[in-house]
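ok new one. same drill as before - structure tokens go in, u give me an amino acid for every spot. 144 of them this time. try not to just spam alanines like last time pls lmao
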């Protein structure tokens, strides 16, 4: 999902794609906008994403206000709670949501399905590409 969004945005903007455990406050400060992408685990944002926000929240507080953000969640059944958690953090940072969260559902409900590698269908990846392209275009045109 994140790779699809990043690739689509590269025509319009300088896109940096980082895993949550490799990103930090300096990356947030250097960016003009953000697309947060993560799986929902046990009805909450993933642990790696939570740890990213824990590490970065206070170091950038008051320094990234007004920047645009979007989010994408991959969920087994719902995804709403992970999206709410990310939105609350973004609200604390005073970021500007530029679209509602994209939640893609894999319908993985058995232990085997939950643990299996997921393949996102192309039509759903197109939705991710649209988010990446829209964020890049909005930043490039100064809309955000």
């Amino acid at each position: 999902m994140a790779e699809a969004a990043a690739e689509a945005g590269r025509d319009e903007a300088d896109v940096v794609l980082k895993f949550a455990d490799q990103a930090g406050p300096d990356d947030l400060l250097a960016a003009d906008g953000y697309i947060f992408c993560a799986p929902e685990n046990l009805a909450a944002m993933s642990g790696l994403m939570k740890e990213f926000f824990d590490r970065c929240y206070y170091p950038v507080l008051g320094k990234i206000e007004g920047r645009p953000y979007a989010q994408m969640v991959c969920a087994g059944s719902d995804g709403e709670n992970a999206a709410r958690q990310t939105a609350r953090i973004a609200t604390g940072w005073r970021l500007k949501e530029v679209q509602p969260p994209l939640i893609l559902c894999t319908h993985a409900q058995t232990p085997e399905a939950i643990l299996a590698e997921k393949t996102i269908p192309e039509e759903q990846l197109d939705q991710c590409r649209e988010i990446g392209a829209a964020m890049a275009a909005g930043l490039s045109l100064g809309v955000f």
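The CA atoms of residues 20 and 52 lie 6 Å apart. and btw Helices lie at 2-9, 25-30, 47-60, 80-93, 111-115, 122-141.
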